[in-house]
Design a protein that fits this description.
Length: 500
C-alpha cells in the first residue's frame, strides 16, 4: 500500500514533490490497479484477505481473487444470509491508506486529471496552490440498496435549478449538475445490493457509464470517464428471472461468483460462535455446552434439507445465530429467577426460542398447511435427534427407557432450578451415569449436569423411544404402555384361571 513520506502535502505543488504521488504514477493508476496491487501484496505476505468471513476459503475467496486480479467488475450471487454484503464491504481493506484529491470536490477528483468543470477551473486559477485533501478507504466506498423507486437522479445525477440561480448560470451549464451516487464514488468502489430490483432505465445508465464513460442528464450530454470499481449482489432467483436484469449490463459484468451456506456443521458453528451475542454482561456466568451449539446449527441444516421449506428463499445463517441468542436469554432469565450463579441453556430453551426460527423460514404449500410453529418444532426435534445419534451411537440406553416402560414419568418445570431438576432426574435409573459421555461428574456445576441429563431425555424423545406431553412430561411411548397393560391383563387372567 502507498505510504506517505515526510510531511503530508496540503497543496498540489507540495504533492508534486512527493515521489510516492508523482504525476506519472498517480495519473496512470486506476482504482482497479490499486486494488489489484494491494491484493498481490497481501497474497505475497500470506495475510488473511477477508477477515471474519468463514467457510469461503476454498470456494468464494479464490474466485474473488481471480476477479480482482483480472480487474473485473463482479457480482456475488447468493441466497440471504450468505455474507455477500460483508464481503463487498471488506474490499475497502484492499484500498490505499490515503489518496490525494482536490479539496472540496464532490467527485474526489485526481489532482492531476480533474473531471468536473469546477476543479478544472480551480486548477487553472490556483495552479500549484490548489488545496489537497486526503481520502481514507471508508470515504471511497459507496453502497446503495437497489429498490424499484431509485431514480436516475439518485444514481447518476440531475440538473439543479437552485445552483443555476445562485451562480447566474445557464441551466445547461455543467456547473449546475447535482451529481448522484455513482459519480461521487469516483476513484473508489461502488456497490449495489440486490441489483435486479433496479429499474431498466437505471441499469442502462450503469452499463453506459461502465462501457462508454458518458451519461445524459435531462438530455444534456456529460462526459464522465469515471474511475470506479463496480460490485453487485443479487439473489440467484431474481438474477435469472426474465426482465429482472438487462442483457447488456449482465454482459459487462466480468465475473459471476456464487456464494453458499456453510458446507459442514463445524463451519456453521464457527460462524455462529463468532457472530452470536454470547459474551454478554450478566449477573449469571454464561456457559454454552457444545451439544447446544450443535443443535442450534443443526436446526438450520435440517431446514435447508426439509421439502416443506422454500429452497429458493433459503435459510439464512442468521437463524442459528438468533436461535442461540434467544435460547441463551431464556436460560439467563431462568437463572436470574432461580438466583443461580450460572446460566446454561438446555434443549428446553431451544424450543422456547422458536420465534427465532419461524420468522426466518419461508414455507412451501405443504408447510403452510401444517403451520410455522409445528414445522419449527419438528426441525428442532430432528436436530436434537441428529446430535444425539452422533454422541450416543453405540451406547446402551435401555435401562433409562425401561424405567419409563415400567410406568415412570417425569414432568420438568421450565422455570425449575438446576438443583431441583437434578433431584428429579436422579430418580431415573441409569440416566446420571450417561453424563460421563460429556465428561461430567458429581463435582461439576449443577446447571451443566442438568442441561446434559435433559438432553439425553430429549434425544430419546427425538428417536421416539419415549414420549413427552404437556400433561405427563417424559413418559413411555403409548404403544409400550398399552403393551405393558395388555401383559398385566393376560397375567391376571392366567392367575384367575389357575385359582378357579
Amino acid at each position: 500500500m502507498t505510504k506517505l513520506s515526510g510531511q503530508t502535502p496540503s497543496t498540489l505543488g507540495s504533492l508534486r514533490q512527493n515521489p510516492a504521488f508523482s504525476e506519472d504514477r498517480l495519473a496512470a493508476r486506476t482504482i482497479k490497479d490499486e486494488v489489484r496491487a494491494n491484493l498481490i501484496c497481501k497474497l505475497q505476505k500470506g495475510e488473511t484477505l477477508f477477515p471474519g468471513v468463514l467457510g469461503f476459503e476454498d470456494t468464494v475467496v479464490p474466485q474473488m481473487v481471480n476477479a480482482i486480479l483480472s480487474r473485473h467488475n463482479f457480482i456475488l450471487l447468493g441466497l440471504r444470509g450468505q455474507a455477500k454484503t460483508r464481503l463487498i464491504r471488506l474490499l475497502t481493506t484492499l484500498l490505499d491508506d490515503r489518496i490525494p484529491a482536490i479539496a472540496g470536490c464532490e467527485l474526489h477528483d485526481n489532482p492531476y486529471r480533474p473531471l468536473c468543470k469546477q476543479c478544472r477551473d480551480l486548477l487553472a486559477e490556483a495552479g500549484d496552490e490548489t488545496p489537497i485533501a486526503w481520502l481514507a478507504p471508508d470515504q471511497r466506498y459507496v453502497e446503495k440498496l437497489a429498490t424499484p423507486d431509485v431514480t436516475i437522479a439518485d444514481m447518476i445525477g440531475d440538473l439543479d435549478p437552485i445552483k443555476a440561480a445562485r451562480r447566474g448560470a445557464d441551466i445547461a451549464d455543467e456547473l449546475t449538475i447535482h451529481y448522484g451516487l455513482l459519480p461521487r464514488a469516483n476513484r473508489g468502489i461502488f456497490a449495489i445490493n440486490e441489483l435486479p430490483d433496479l429499474a431498466g432505465k437505471i441499469q442502462v445508465g450503469l452499463f453506459n457509464i461502465m462501457q462508454e464513460g458518458d451519461v445524459q442528464i435531462k438530455g444534456y450530454p456529460v462526459r464522465l470517464p469515471l474511475d470506479v470499481m463496480l460490485v453487485f449482489t443479487a439473489n440467484p432467483e431474481d438474477y435469472t428471472a426474465r426482465g429482472k436484469i438487462i442483457t447488456p449490463l449482465k454482459d459487462r459484468i466480468g465475473s459471476e461468483i456464487r456464494t453458499h451456506y456453510p458446507a459442514a456443521v463445524e463451519q456453521g458453528i464457527a460462524i455462529t460462535r463468532q457472530e452470536a451475542w454470547a459474551d454478554r454482561t450478566s449477573p449469571a456466568r454464561i456457559h454454552i455446552p457444545d451439544f447446544i451449539r450443535h443443535i442450534a446449527e443443526q436446526v438450520a441444516f435440517q431446514a435447508r434439507e426439509d421439502k416443506r421449506v422454500d429452497k429458493r428463499s433459503g435459510v439464512s445463517q442468521r437463524l442459528p445465530i438468533a436461535l442461540l441468542e434467544n435460547a441463551l436469554s431464556n436460560a439467563e432469565r431462568r437463572s436470574l429467577a432461580a438466583r443461580e450463579s450460572m446460566a446454561v441453556p438446555r434443549v428446553l430453551d431451544i424450543y422456547a426460542a422458536l420465534p427465532a426460527v419461524t420468522g426466518k423460514i419461508e414455507l412451501e404449500y405443504e408447510g403452510e398447511l401444517k403451520g410455522g410453529d409445528a414445522i419449527g418444532r419438528e426441525l428442532i426435534r430432528a436436530a436434537v435427534g441428529k446430535v444425539f445419534s452422533d454422541l450416543f451411537e453405540n451406547d446402551n440406553l435401555s435401562q433409562i427407557v425401561q424405567w419409563f416402560d415400567l410406568g415412570g414419568s417425569l414432568k420438568i418445570d421450565e422455570n425449575s432450578g438446576s438443583a431441583a431438576m437434578l433431584q428429579q432426574l436422579g430418580t431415573i435409573h441409569g440416566l446420571m451415569d450417561k453424563l460421563s459421555r460429556f465428561q461430567l461428574g458429581p463435582k461439576d456445576p449443577a446447571p451443566v449436569r442438568a442441561a446434559a441429563a435433559e438432553f439425553v431425555l430429549e434425544g430419546l424423545y427425538a428417536h421416539r423411544r419415549i414420549t413427552r406431553s404437556e400433561e405427563r412430561g417424559f413418559a413411555a411411548e403409548e404403544r409400550k404402555r398399552e403393551s405393558h397393560a395388555n401383559d398385566e391383563t393376560r397375567q391376571r387372567s392366567t392367575y384367575r384361571r389357575q385359582f378357579n
